[in-house]
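Give me structure tokens for this 834-residue protein.
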Amino acid sequence: MSAGGNITVNITQILAAATSTVVSAGRVVGAIPSLPQHFVLREQFRELAGQVAGSRVTAVVTGMRGVGKTQLAAAYARAALTMPEFELVGWVDAETPGALLEGLTAIATHLGVEDPDGDSHRSATRLRDHLNGRAGLGLLVFDNAVDPDRVAEFVPNHGGTRVVITSTDQDFTTLGAEVDLEVYERPVSVRFLHEATAHHRSPPDDAGADGIAAEVGDLPLALTQAAATITARRLDYSRYRELLAGPLPRVFTRRSGEPHRWVVDKAILLSIQTTRTPTGDPELDTAVTDLLDVVAMLSATGVPRDLLPDYAGRRDEAIARCVRGSLLAWSADDTTVVMHRLIARVLRDRADTDRARTRLAGNAIDAIEPHLFDHSQAWQRRTLGNQLIEHIEAITTTRFADHDPDNSARLLETRIWAGIQLVGAADLPRGIDYTRRTLLDTETQLGTEQPHTLITRADLAYAYALQSAGRVTEAIDLYERLLPDQERILGAEHRDTSTTRANLAYTYQAAGRVAEAIDLYERLLPDQERILGAEHRDTLAIRARLAYAYRSAERVVEAIGLLESLLPDQERILGAEHPDTLATRASLADSHAWAGRGAEAIDLYQRLLPDRERILGAEHPDTLTTRHNLAFACVSAARAPEAIGLYERLLPDRERILGAEHPDTLATRANLAYANQEAGRVAEAIDLYERLLPDHKRILGAEHPNTLMTRHNLAGAYESAGRGVEAIGLYERLLPDQERILGAEHPDTLATRHDLAYTYHAVGQIAEAIDLYEWLLPVLVRVFGHDAPIVRGVRKRLAAAHRRQKSSSRWARIVFGLRANRCAVVLQRFGRRG
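Here you go.
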């Protein structure tokens, strides 16, 4: 590698490697097609290798469908895998937005740079940034790309990673050096047919081969299909031409702008008929037919073997027969079967009646449905989930399910599953977009009052509620319009109606409308007890949520009482080691810490921690959260130096297990800064906050609640350091942002208004302090009640301000100052759907 970061690719070496055995050594990510090497000409391969070696980053392989773009790129990728210089080879199908993001996320995960919260778009962006700074030689292939703008967003433009893009769209040539594939020249076509069919006549039948090449327009894919048919049927060239000229149906018409001759379709169809020729084994013959039809309906990215039906134990024999007929090919790692898009189109276009289309759609849905797993496994099985979603999308795109009501309903159910899966895997932007599209279709096909439509509306609201603080208002609007419809259509006691009531309450709470959340929970709880029973898991969950809402409303004593009555019920009904039981123990400890009962909280955390380590494991996120909250309890118990030690031991563990940019890791950094502040190490706290804030903006976004809270806490640290004027400047810039993003009466916004008033008072701006306190007091009374600690604190401060005396009480500021940092961890663990 040269000093400037330019990497020399040895063309001769990689050309020789193209036909050698692939040794991936764990460096490959993606289903690289493993296609016949005779498909790729050495001249084409040499041109691509030269362009990759000579271009700054990107080479673009263009040409019409069937000329071998994918095969050429696959041969190059397989060659790269044989060479130790290539540290990574990634293969991404770029035909659909979902497949593009899925492929890039898989590579990001392989490299450990994926978005910790599961957002596939952010994972793709993080991968691009990582590759831009990565010096080692790598190869990234974007196959069958269709949208130059979308792909360009994720292409690394410097570093050691070389990029190959295949596409029929000439606009991609703006991204790199072009390798334009055309149909074979006639002598090449003739030589190809001789070699592929092993015809060794002397003299060779050049005229016969020339005639076939002329018929199929020298298109490589058609020549491959012809060779497969000739070999399987033991034909000579003249007999094949007779078949090609015979009365085969024209299976699809030429599309506008497509240069293929229609006889190419017939060449593919002959190959299909040859592969489907009865063998005397009806079971195998049926398996071959069904296999081809299913793969043609699923994603062109390839279908993992294990997702295909077993066909009574004949699956592998059926695949082998289709591979011999050049209708399917194995991926380089022999786990996935791939079908060329033109072959799939011929198979689909042969279904020229509603009955045939219904059969294909039904078989494809039959193949997918058994693999749809429970949503509780959404995060753990997100890779499989993404594969299934791509197949569901492929079936949807054909519109074949529209010809049968049963298929249409089944497909909608799988699409609803797909939207929930994306949200459950925390891929929220994709999940919202997908669920929106599904909702439009359910409303169009089924109507606005059908149960599937109601479910999809609920799923969309739930996704909005999770995405960010800025979407909570939209979620509330969706829930508030959905709830009366569910009560009217399903009934007030239907489980989906109850779920919406619970989720609306939770969303109110997330928006800072705590009183409304409590009112909903308190009305829902007796209904749940009456309908489901006091010991049903959903009823127990509502009690836990109500306790959390009480705590958010500063009704901590009531929260503790509710949790203490809930815990023995959960231990008896669910078991002492059930996740919900452990979560209640953690919430009880959190509530004691929230109430300032540091000693009680520490005791509860210290008894919970070994149980979580034993049941969940020392590296489970909930175990790490317990360590984090134990440290916070030490802060609230005035044991800040001890808390600093706990945080400093926890931080490297979170960085190693979760990643340096995971929100929980950032929360530990934030609370370490706060512990230093409480320990009187204000300079260290300011340094930690100032280094944390740009990371929060970059990773979480400038409008994320935790970013806003870090700005708040930095201002508080400035005030503690006697830098009141700087603190006021930060608070004054923060307050309008919080009012716009969170709302004027959100607890965090109220905390900033309170602390700004406190700082005005501290620097002698008494009139400004009094104005803020007088605005704040009635709001706090309405939100938290007359006797809440924060209300009593503001009354005292307002009186002190009127007396122009500096208040010595700082309890209210401490309670508010870390609210978001503390809640950020707790909310992650209790914010479950339904």
